[in-house]
């Protein structure tokens, strides 16, 4: 497979394992899902997902009896402190083999068989540069992704030169940010710890699965995780993006990559899998978010006067309005569900949602976080509690953008007290519920959910990679057909040479722009914005 990835440093990783027989007695919730799976807001209601016969239950799979039993929910007592294990202590039980994440502890057999099946969970995440030298190649990988910079098909040949150009321009500013949070992204460390906690939680629920981490733009790359999955002989795979809400630019991009890897590999073509595309509506996520907010509100003198300020990572507006990205709808529903949960606890604070971290010249989802902070200050709001909602780990945009830039802006704008809810990390309600989501999806591994009625009624929205992407692609606006030039001479070879000539011309123009400081990109205000 052709790889766009720039990869200067070597990977390191780890693994673990499990056994399971698909359960026969899981009772699906009685919801009728009429829309493509990428639109859970339209499909799902906020109640009904987590209750069974009025009692709060969870699916418990006993690998000995091969049955699912409904048992009262319990918690595992995993703390944030436990989660942030040092590199050394992790390495003790995380042998650096392949791309796997989770540990091999004493009680974990190296093979995880049930019948003939070996079950794996693949956590998908974005990845982040681990050192300052990684920043530019990491940015290249990000901007080389057609789901991040969406060029019309005719101009796809410009994707890599453009990615190179933008990544070089943006690297100095990004490096400053990563330098200020300790010289690199904490994402890998936190995602590894989440994978390990998920593995433990699955084991505690009698589902001894192996858990793998596949990052989209940095180590351990998805390709590395897949290689490890093949080496381990996994036969059934649950794919779980670590983004609560679906976006074309995040989960969608990772799934598209997986699809291309699956298509080209004989082993993977035959491996049964299912995908949990988004899970913001699950009780564990909602409860865990509400718990964190409730706790943080108590640090204010008058908690009831605090404005709860949900800040989500933005996406370009066109993703939602033209490409059918369900991200905004899912984000708004997430906020509604969390506020409903807080109301049940008699917390009825004012709240708002805004979008942060925009990049480039195009319009992004509004309102923008920075503008909203200023407006709130002008309106006389004095206490603000920022809640990062689109991502479950601390990363540059919480540690630098929110904690430093937005805090400073808020204090300048008249806000007197600023607070911030931590990212979920390894919060145990959250991890335990992710484990439940995996368990609930297991009966549908290989069932190819979208076309399968039973799977449509499952407790988590499920689908195969291919079907999910087909649902997403059907929402994409058709690109205009290629322009037909003269009949004569429009051969494959002419097309290739035309493409090359155009690429050279664009590179020349870019070069002239950078050296002279003048040109279209400057006129349109694009170039300075990438700095
Ligand atoms: C739900 C989360 C995210 C969405 C949606 C998203 C879309 C998106 N991001 C960019 C551009 C950049 N993202 C960068 C880093 C980054 N982004 C997310 C999350 C989402 N991105 C994370 C978790 C990270 C990694 C942070 C870390 O700690 O390493 C970066 C690099 C950092 C920087 O230079 O600011 C860029 C650039 C676009 C264009 C986009 C939607 C199209
Ligand atoms: Fe991003």
TrEMBL record:
GO cellular component, one term: mitochondrion
InterPro entries xrefs: Ferrochelatase, Ferrochelatase_AS, Ferrochelatase_C, Ferrochelatase_N
Keyword Repeat: no
Coiled coil feature spans: none
Any one GO BP annotation for this protein: heme biosynthetic process
Catalysed reaction equations from the record: heme b + 2 H(+) = protoporphyrin IX + Fe(2+)
Pathway given in the UniProt record: Porphyrin-containing compound metabolism; protoheme biosynthesis; protoheme from protoporphyrin-IX: step 1/1
Designated name of the protein: Ferrochelatase
């Amino acid at each position: 497979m052709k790889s766009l990835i720039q990869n200067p440093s070597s990977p390191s990783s780890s693994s673990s394992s499990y056994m399971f027989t698909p359960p026969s007695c899981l009772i699906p919730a009685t919801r009728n899902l009429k829309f493509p799976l990428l639109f859970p807001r339209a499909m799902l209601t906020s109640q009904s997902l987590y209750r069974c016969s009025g009692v709060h239950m969870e699916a418990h799979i006993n690998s000995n009896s091969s049955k699912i039993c409904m048992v009262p929910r319990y918690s595992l007592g995993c703390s944030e402190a436990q989660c942030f294990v040092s590199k050394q202590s992790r390495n003790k039980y995380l042998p650096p083999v392949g791309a796997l994440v989770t540990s091999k502890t004493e009680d974990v057999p190296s093979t995880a068989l049930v019948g003939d099946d070996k079950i794996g969970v693949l956590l998908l995440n974005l990845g982040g540069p681990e050192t300052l030298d990684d920043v530019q190649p990491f940015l290249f990988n990000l901007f080389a992704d057609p789901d991040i910079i969406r060029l019309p098909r005719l101009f796809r040949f410009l994707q890599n030169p453009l990615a190179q150009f933008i990544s070089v321009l943006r690297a100095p500013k990004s490096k400053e940010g990563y330098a200020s949070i300790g010289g690199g992204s904490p994402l890998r460390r936190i995602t590894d710890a989440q994978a390990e906690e998920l593995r433990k939680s699955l084991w505690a629920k009698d589902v001894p699965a192996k858990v793998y981490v596949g990052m989209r733009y940095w180590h351990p790359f998805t390709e590395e995780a897949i290689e490890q999955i093949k080496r381990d002989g996994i036969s059934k795979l649950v794919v779980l993006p670590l983004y609560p809400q679906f976006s074309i630019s995040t989960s969608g991009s990772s799934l598209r990559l997986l699809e291309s890897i699956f298509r080209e590999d004989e082993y993977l073509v035959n491996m049964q899998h299912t995908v949990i595309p988004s899970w913001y509506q699950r009780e564990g996520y909602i409860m865990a978010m509400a718990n964190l907010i409730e706790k943080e509100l108590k640090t204010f003198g008058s908690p009831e006067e605090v404005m709860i300020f949900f800040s989500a990572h933005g996406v370009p507006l066109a993703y939602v309005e033209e490409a059918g990205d369900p991200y905004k709808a899912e984000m708004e529903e997430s906020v509604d569900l969390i506020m409903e949960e807080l109301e049940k606890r008699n917390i009825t604070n004012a709240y708002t949602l805004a979008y942060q971290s925009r990049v480039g010249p195009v319009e992004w989802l509004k309102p923008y976080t920075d503008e909203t902070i200023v407006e709130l200050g002008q309106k006389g709001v004095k206490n603000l509690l920022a809640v990062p909602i689109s991502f479950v780990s601390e990363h540059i945009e919480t540690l630098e953008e929110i904690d430093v830039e937005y805090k400073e802006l808020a204090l300048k704008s008249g806000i007197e007290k600023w607070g911030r809810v931590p990212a979920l990390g390894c919060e145990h309600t959250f991890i335990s519920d992710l484990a439940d989501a995996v368990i609930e999806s297991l009966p549908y591994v290989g069932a190819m959910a979208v076309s399968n009625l039973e799977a449509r009624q499952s407790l988590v929205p499920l689908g195969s990679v291919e079907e999910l992407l087909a649902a997403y692609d059907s929402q994409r606006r058709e690109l205009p057909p290629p322009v037909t030039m003269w009949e004569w001479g429009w051969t494959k070879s002419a097309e290739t040479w035309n493409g090359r000539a155009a690429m050279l011309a664009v590179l020349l123009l870019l070069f002239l722009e950078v050296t002279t400081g003048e040109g279209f990109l400057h006129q349109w205000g694009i170039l300075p914005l990438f700095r």
